[in-house]
Design goal:
The chain is of the alpha+beta class and 418 residues long. It contains nine helices and nine strands. Bound molecules: protoporphyrin IX containing FE.
């Protein structure tokens, strides 16, 4: 039996109530395994040492939003983060705030919930918050909220990479929330309600819808395909890789920013694909570009998807079976100082571009312990040599410090920072 959203007629329940509702301490603990076998409608626990939505088996849908903070008032911002936390705990547990206004339950007031998720189950909703560098120090160098001395070194701005065609209006931001769910309406509803609650404190800078996860984050999940038709996520960091997660995913106090211990750094890139050109490329060329076959997803020269790639193998012509410029070679930890990423991206198609082409691609999402040692070197090597670059363009970029999880009563998003 899945939990059904209940239309409460009172204002939203607080964190304490929600904590009870999501069975803290059960197998469903925020940020740690929700079995991939769990029903797609079931809730994922919000509370835990780590935020949910990172190692949680990737859900099918995404609504990602970046926000600008429009107040100078630190107390107002912290109050909103408290309200967001209570709303996030409630929504991820599959509960609505109810349709009647908070002020005395009056029908004259705007509803406490926009209503489009009434009757829908929790649908595996996770909400993951991140803080952008501009929250700490704005473009003019101003310490708006008295936290400039807490900027983690790992939040160093990403360098310009060759081929970047970044659009500032869909890049960066003060805050971000990644909403993932197995029902698009549930993910959209969650972001919309956070924006509604934040009215006057934050405004949406940009948002991105995604469908069809392009990564698996658990060995229980089948590998999905990206819009180039290839299995994506085969050699991803997965929740079963506990030693690697400890070493490569979760920030630690000794990394410099104690408030980030148990958190992780997120890089987002909206990568446009020229699918029309890709679709006119031969199968052999497509496979050579990735270094994997398209049907099975096996490394070239091997038979099965999870076989290890042999980067030393040479064909009858004496050439490497996996080309020097193949995506999986350039991105492989062996050639990037052991760097791994936990990728969690989604496909997108945002209509067409007016030039007879789909505005389609991959909204790339990757979590890691330190982008300076992980995303940056891997992307440098890809930007320099990947033949895939002929078919893709990075048009938006974001770097976010995602704090540790909310542990229960009295705790809220950003507490360790503020
Ligand atoms: C692997 C697609 C961009 C990092 C792969 C694979 C595919 C793929 C099909 C092989 C299957 C797998 O192991 O997941 C794409 C597409 C991209 C893209 C279509 C752009 C539209 C990126 C970017 C990065 C990245 C920007 C990081 C900077 C990786 C890594 C692997 C990988 C680390 C695993 C390498 C290994 O250990 O074998 N990608 N990718 N990819 N990709 Fe990408």
């Amino acid at each position: 039996m899945v939990s059904r959203r209940t239309a409460l007629t009172t204002a939203g329940i607080g964190i304490a109530g929600a904590a009870g509702a999501v069975a803290v301490g059960s197998a469903f603990v925020g940020g740690t395994p929700t079995p991939a076998s769990a029903s797609p409608a079931a809730p994922v626990a919000f509370f835990g040492e780590h935020q949910a939505g990172i190692v949680t088996p990737a859900q099918d849908r995404l609504h990602f939003a970046a926000f600008d903070v429009i107040t100078k008032d630190r107390a107002k911002l912290v109050e909103m983060l408290r309200e967001w936390t209570a709303a996030a705990a409630r929504m991820t547990a599959g509960r609505d705030a109810g349709l009647l206004g908070a002020v005395g339950g009056q029908a004259e007031a705007p509803p406490d919930d926009t209503g489009e998720a009434l009757g829908l189950p929790a649908s595996g909703l996770t909400l993951t918050i991140g803080f952008g560098r501009s929250l700490f120090r704005d473009a003019a160098g101003l310490d708006r909220f008295g936290i400039a001395d807490r900027i983690p070194a790992a939040l160093e701005p990403l360098p310009h990479f060759p081929g970047d065609a970044l659009r500032p209006e869909i890049s960066d931001g003060d805050l971000c929330v990644q909403a993932c769910a197995n029902d698009p309406q549930v993910a959209v509803h969650a972001i919309r309600n956070l924006a509604r609650i934040g009215f006057g404190t934050v405004s949406i800078r940009y948002s991105q819808l995604g469908f069809g996860r392009t990564s698996s984050t658990s060995r229980d999940q089948a590998t999905a395909r990206n819009l180039m038709g290839f299995k994506d996520g085969t050699r991803n960091l997965k929740l079963e890789d506990t030693d690697l997660l400890r070493e490569q995913l979760w920030a630690r106090a000794e990394d410099g920013a104690a408030w980030m211990a148990g958190g992780s750094y997120l890089v987002t890139r909206r990568i446009r694909m020229t699918v029309e050109t890709w679709d006119r490329t031969s199968l052999a060329e497509q496979e050579a570009i990735f270094g994997r076959d398209k049907g099975e997803g096996a490394p070239l020269g091997q038979a099965k998807e999870f076989d290890e790639p042999d980067f030393n193998a040479r064909g009858d012509d004496g050439e490497p079976v996996i080309a020097k410029q193949a995506h999986i070679r350039l991105a492989h930890p062996d050639f990037n100082n052991g760097a791994h990423l936990l990728r969690r991206g989604y496909n997108f198609v945002d209509g067409s571009d007016g030039l007879g082409r789909l505005d389609a691609g991959l909204f790339f999402i990757a979590y890691q312990r330190d982008p300076r040692k992980q995303f940056v070197p891997v992307q440098r090597s890809l930007a320099r040599a990947d033949v895939l670059n002929e078919y893709i363009r990075h048009v938006s970029s974001g770097l976010w410090a995602c704090p540790p999880g909310v542990t229960g009563d009295g705790d809220h998003w950003g507490r360790t920072l503020f």
